[in-house]
Design goal:
66% helix, 0% strand, elongated, mainly alpha, Arc Repressor Mutant, subunit A
Amino acid sequence: MAETKPDNKDEIYFAVCNAILKMEFTKGHLSWTVSDIARESKITRSLIYYYFGKEKTSILEVAYKFIISHFFNIDKVRKVSVRDRLKDLLNDLKSMPYLVNLFYMAKGADSAFGKMIQQKERELLVGMKVEFPHLSEVHILEVYLLELGALIYHLPPERTDELFSLYKKG
C-alpha cells in the first residue's frame, strides 16, 4: 500500500518536523539536507522553505520548538491531563521512536535546545502541581519520572490509567 502525502497544514508541519528530527537523529547534527527532509516527509523543498526558512539551524530550531511544545503540551489553548498527554505521547512514539533519544540527548546539552527543554520541563512541573495540588514537589517529580519511564518502556497507551492509580486528582 502506498504512503499518502500529508494534505493539510498541520499534517504537513508535523510530517516535516518529524522528518527533520528523524534525520537529525539518524544522520547526525545538521548532517542532513533539505532534500533529505523533503524526501522523508513527502513535502516539496519549496513548501519546507516557506514554512521553515532556508537555514538548516533555523529549520531545526522550528522543529525542536514544535516537538517540545507537543511533548510538554504547555502552549496549547486546551490543557490535557497528565494521563491524556502521556497517551498522546505513547501513540506518537509509534511513528517517532527516536523522539525519546533526541529528548535525552538535547536535555543534557548546553545548547539552545537543551535550555528550551529544561524551561518547558520546569513549566510542566508547575502545571502538574496545579493538576495535583495535594502532592509534594517530590511526588510531582515521581509522576513526571513515571511518564518518562513509560515512554522508555513503551507502555501501551491503554495502560496509563493503571500507571497513575496512586495519584488521584486533589
